[in-house]
């Protein structure tokens, strides 16, 4: 299938049908988040405009042509299976996880032996070509790079074999870099974080008017992850498919093509209830209420019925699953899941940038819903949030150990860091008794 320069929806059915993940093994992802500019309302973003094939107006990084993203992802060793777009963002479902493109930032999450950091030079060359001729990696507003400890570190490629080498490469590109090893480094279940970019009190060229500043203040940046291992075998089994790669997985319905990978992916998403983790009417059944023992401020008091998601999902053969879900009508919010269900090294991850607050969706509700779907033997929770965002979100997570204890999870670690640019990190690790 030939894609136009900029697109609102795309599926490579042939690639999807032929993709064989028999030898996939490393679940934990490398997560790269680069903010080129503070927001989409600065002039350099607003002055870069294009339109999709169906008339969606694009700005900033979203104007970069499709073929350039293909070339960049080739350097990472992954392919584009499909794309979904809203007026806020573009979500690329990849052969190894996901790419999210906003007008002012990108989020690239890749698993396996992908070489995520190999895309950096190409990324800034593309930005110079299509958006700002003088823009370099030293000019970025902020950068986050993180990953869980690998299960098979010896299988990784080049700099990704060793955290110190990753940090060295990142320091060559970005200013004010800091690196952290979070959790028990004597075991194989800890977490790495790198941050960098401009310090908040530094002068820069990004002028934002008072109205925009007010909007930015109300919508604070948050990233919430749940990283799970040792999935319960019965729960992991729902992410194993019986389809055969090749022409048998390609569906031709006259004028339209489809493929079983995407078809099974959406069915799996619905049957596992991964499509409803943000809905209020979820049935917990055997799980205790996550609101138990919480303060009143932790309750879900807002109406989220108007939060609609566009879903894109794929079931790999013989096993594995990935999905992107992006808000269609209420801001540039996403959640994404990636699962490798193989016995012995099973892994699942959940990530979202949804701005949890007492007046919207409860972060503890989402945590318990995800845990019910996978029933992991171990899991880590990370929340990176701007410091002046609502402290109730941190309190909600730190108190959830009381409810988790009732389903036989013990808390091994709670770690809090103050980071640059008024961000803070909460890291929690739990293990089944």
Helix-strand blueprint:
Layout: E1 9-11, H1 13-18, E2 30-35, H2 43-46, E3 49-51, E4 57-59, H3 66-76, E5 80-85, E6 90-94, E7 97-101, E8 105-110, H4 120-130, E9 142-148, H5 163-173, E10 178-182, E11 191-197, H6 210-218, E12 222-231, H7 233-236, E13 250-253, E14 256-259, H8 260-271, E15 309-315, E16 321-327, E17 334-340, E18 347-352, H9 363-374, E19 376-386, H10 391-399, H11 401-405, E20 409-419, E21 423-432
Protein name: S-adenosylmethionine decarboxylase proenzyme
Question: Could you explain the architecture of this structure?
Answer:
The protein has helices at 13-18, 43-46, 66-76, 120-130, 163-173, 210-218, 233-236, 260-271, 363-374, 391-399, 401-405; strands at 9-11, 30-35, 49-51, 57-59, 80-85, 90-94, 97-101, 105-110, 142-148, 178-182, 191-197, 222-231, 250-253, 256-259, 309-315, 321-327, 334-340, 347-352, 376-386, 409-419, 423-432. A hairpin with a 3-residue loop joins strand 7 and strand 8. The longest helix has 12 residues, at 260-271. The termini are far apart. It folds into two domains: 9-216, S-adenosylmethionine decarboxylase, CATH 3.60.90; 224-432, 4-Layer Sandwich (S-adenosylmethionine decarboxylase). The strands form four sheets. The chain has a nine-stranded antiparallel beta sheet. It has an eight-stranded antiparallel beta sheet with strand order 15-16-17-18-12-19-21-20. Residues 202-218 and 282-305 have low confidence and may be disordered. It is of the alpha+beta class. It contains eleven helices and 21 strands.
């Amino acid at each position: 299938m030939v894609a136009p320069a900029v697109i609102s929806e795309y599926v490579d059915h042939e690639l999807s049908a032929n993709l064989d993940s028999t030898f996939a093994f490393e679940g934990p992802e490398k997560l790269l988040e680069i903010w080129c500019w503070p927001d989409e309302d600065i002039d350099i973003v607003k002055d870069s405009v294009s339109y999709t094939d169906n008339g969606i107006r694009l700005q900033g990084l979203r104007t970069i042509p499709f073929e350039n993203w293909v070339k960049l992802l080739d350097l990472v060793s992954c392919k584009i299976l499909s794309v979904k777009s809203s007026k806020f963002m573009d979500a690329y479902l990849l052969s190894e996880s996901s790419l999210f493109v906003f007008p002012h930032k990108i989020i690239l999450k890749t698993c396996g032996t992908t070489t995520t950091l190999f895309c950096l030079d190409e990324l800034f060359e593309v930005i110079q070509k299509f958006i700002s001729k003088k823009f370099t990696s030293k000019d970025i507003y902020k950068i986050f790079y993180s990953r869980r400890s690998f299960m098979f570190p010896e299988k990784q490629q080049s700099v990704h074999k060793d955290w110190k080498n990753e940090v060295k490469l990142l320091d060559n590109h970005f200013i004010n870099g800091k690196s952290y090893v979070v959790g028990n480094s004597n075991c194989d279940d800890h977490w790495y974080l790198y941050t960098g970019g401009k310090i908040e009190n530094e002068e820069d060229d990004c002028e934002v008017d008072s109205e925009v500043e007010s909007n930015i203040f109300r919508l604070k940046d948050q990233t919430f992850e749940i990283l799970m291992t040792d999935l319960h075998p019965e729960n992991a089994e729902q992410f194993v498919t019986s389809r055969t790669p090749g022409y048998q997985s390609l569906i031709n319905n006259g004028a339209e093509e489809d493929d079983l990978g995407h078809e099974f992916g959406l069915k799996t998403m619905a049957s596992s209830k991964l499509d409803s983790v943000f809905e209020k009417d979820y049935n917990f059944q055997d799980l205790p209420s996550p609101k138990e023992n919480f303060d009143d401020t932790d309750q879900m008091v807002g109406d989220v019925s108007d939060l609609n998601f566009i879903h894109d999902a794929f079931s790999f053969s013989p096993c594995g699953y990935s999905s992107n879900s992006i808000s269609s009508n209420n801001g540039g919010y996403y959640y994404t899941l990636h699962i490798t269900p193989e016995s012995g090294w099973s892994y699942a991850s959940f990530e979202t940038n949804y701005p949890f607050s007492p007046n919207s969706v409860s972060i503890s509700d989402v945590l318990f819903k995800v845990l019910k779907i996978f029933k992991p033997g171990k899991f880590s929770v990370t929340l990176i949030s701007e410091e002046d965002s609502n402290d109730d979100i941190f309190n909600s997570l730190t108190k959830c150990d009381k409810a988790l204890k009732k389903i036989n999870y013990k808390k091994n670690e709670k770690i809090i860091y103050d980071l640059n640019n008024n961000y803070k990190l909460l890291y929690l690790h739990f293990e089944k008794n």
